[in-house]
Design brief:
The protein is α/β, with parallel strands linked by helices. The chain has 19 helices and 21 strands.
Amino acid sequence: MSNIVPVRNALISVSDKLGLADLAAGLQRDGVTIYSTGGTRKHLEQSGVDVLDVAEYTGFPEMLDGRVKTLHPKVFGGILAIRDRDDHMDAIEDHDIVPFDLVIVNLYPFAATASRPGVSRAECVEQIDIGGPSLVRAAAKNHNDVAVATSPEQYGELLEQMDTAGGTTLAFRQQLAADAFDHTAAYDRAIADYMRGDTIAGEFPSSLHLALRRKTQLRYGENPHQRAAVYADPSVRSANLVSARQISGKELSYNNLLDLDSALDIVRGFARPAVSVMKHNNPCGAATDDRLSLACQKALDGDPLSAFGSVLGFNRTVDIETAERLCEPGLFIEAIVAPDFEAGAVGLLTTRPRWRENVRLMQVGILDALPPAIHRRFISGGMLVQDADRLSSAPLQWETVTETEVADATWDDISFAWEMVRHVKSNAIVLGKDTSLIGVGAGQMSRVDSVEIAIDKAGERSKGSVLASDAFFPFPDSIEAAAEAGIVAIVQPGGSRRDDEVIEACNNHGIPMVFTGRRHFKH
């Protein structure tokens, strides 16, 4: 078994041409003979790289619109020949076969094509690569003698090894082989999931496989004694924290990422400029307004004490006016996620406050696509899968069940509170006023406790506010507490055996109650 394998001949056939010209130029400087096909060959030739055409080498032309080009014994013989077996080397010499020491292949963009809105089945099927996976698997199988690169991220280390070691090391080839089989496995899984999803009328598949790639290791997890890492899901095309660009600040923590993800999820649900304030993965403030800066101030005012050391989510570009509000004395922000940041806003946030060097600014891009419709959660022994809770019942489907009707001016607060309650841990109670969050009762074992906590958080601001509950009220006791606090409307799913008693309590206090017919538990 050889350790250092010099690279004399390389086969290159890639779909993703990022960094390819620089790699090929480096190989050429090291005296490597490069063989290539189709669009890859043309790309390299246009970049000034000398390339030999695989079709000329095999004596067999590309055909069937490029579907057949590398599937030939003179290609696979050169990859699969074991170098320290005389019979193998005699065979490739007898048939004038070139031994390939390096194979650089990545596959047609099937997953990206399948996720494109409006794409046809025929377009997806055409992106099923045949020759590429075969080349990758052959090279990975014979990794004792052949190096295989499947990602532009590997090119730098490849060239570095050739410069310093005069070839590729066995350890590096073994690493590349493992990555190669990961690459083809994820590719085949994406195709299988597409084919199954296209034929089973939306049911959950009989088997489910995750193909995630580690992006980075974190300093630690929820606590310092726990290790942690971030893995990217290549199938997710919507704006997200894993693919976001960090503009400034310290390294993100595990808890930062959880809170930022939740903050982003909240603001996605609003058409107007919206801001969310997260603390320990529950919203302690949120608001909408016609101007982002006003929504920001209202959100921070929701619970000023809890807002200290929080993370913020925005659904609009953070402008200078909003940044000015965030820079006011006495406020400390851990991290901010937004579609974008104005240059002036970045300047203010990273130079003016005392926490300027620490705040993490995360740019996720336009929020034009919803996150995946499937929610996954690991438990001991397996994983739970469900539809994501993204379906909002329209107000036209809601029913006012009390004698007292809802005032026209109150509907905006009712809609806001109902949208917010889905983001709070059950048992969840939120108070909303002027389309802002002013009180939250989260994660309590008793709904009565959640009501009392939300009212206590809001204080005098409870008067004139709207109360939303993620599930029905089993007893009228919470209605009594709401009436005493001056709450002017209640929105809840309904469905309790004691709905009549709860409605009667509202009628006794003149509080309108709206049933939505949909529950929003969050565990």
